[in-house]
Amino acid sequence: GGLALHPGDVDLDDILLAEAARLRALGGVTVDVRGVQPARVRGDAALLRQVVRNLADNAARHARSDVVFTAEPAGGGAVLTVEDDGAGVAASERSRIFERFVRLDDARARDAGGSGLGLAIVREIVRAHGGDVRVDAGRSGGALFVVTLPG
Questions:
Q1: In which region does residue 114 sit, left (phi positive, over 0), alpha (psi from -120 to 50) or beta (all else)?
Q2: Cα gap 47→53, rounded to integer Å
Q3: CB 102 within 8 A of CB 122
Q4: How far apart are CA 47 and CA 88, in angstroms?
Q5: Which helix (H) or strand (E) holds 144?
Q6: Could you tell me which residues come within 8 angstroms of residue 122 by beta carbon, excluding any fewer than 6 positions away?
Q7: DSSP label at 7?
Q8: CB within 8 A of 76, min separation 6: which ones?
Q9: 18: part of which helix (H) or strand (E)?
Q10: How many CB atoms lie within 10 A of CB 86?
Q11: What is the pTM of this model?
Q12: What are the respective helix, strand and coil percentages of the chain, to the nearest 5?
């Protein structure tokens, strides 16, 4: 079955800034939010917070030292990104990373925690909103998660 959405206006920039504050309070990584612009979509606020939380936790877990958040309006919707400066995700593994229970080799699975469900949940929530999520190589060689959501 599909996710039950409770839509409303959601300010993605507010969600990203709140997650950045949470990560900073936890320590361990530097969080850059200079690229976060006002970006509003129609969606389920609680589920979209879960998307950002899962991506933020994933980035913090794999970062050497830096996590970068961006958000910008795009085509009536928004694009948000979460990037880390860790080892990245091999191109051959990028489609698998969103499958349930998948944990990649040592480069992205060096931590002991995690069930391999976080990114699968991200994909399901984003798809339920009519959006798309992908992972690319970031500027520093780490992982860059890109979420595109309609308005």
A1: left
A2: 10
A3: no
A4: 26
A5: strand 143-149
A6: 50, 51, 54, 55, 98, 133, 145, 147
A7: -
A8: 150, 151
A9: helix 12-26
A10: 24
A11: 0.90
A12: 35, 30, 35
Per-residue pLDDT tens for 30-51? 999 999 999 999 999 999 999 9
| Residues facing 79 on adjacent strands | 72, 148
Torsion sign, CA atoms 69, 104, 99, 54: negative
List the structure tokens of 37. Answer: 């612009």
Q: Cα–Cα distance between 35 and 70 in angstroms, integer? A: 5
Tokens at 57, concatenated: 């936790």
Token pair of 12 as six digits: 């993605």
For 62-73, give the DSSP string: H-SSEEEEEEEE
**What single-letter DSSP state applies at residue 101?**
T
pLDDT of residue 108 exceeding 70, the answer is no
Q: Is 112 exposed, middle or buried (0-12, 13-18, 19+ CB in 10 A)?
A: exposed
End-to-end C-alpha distance for the chain, whole angstroms: 23
Give the Cα separation of 30 and 64 in Å (integer).
10
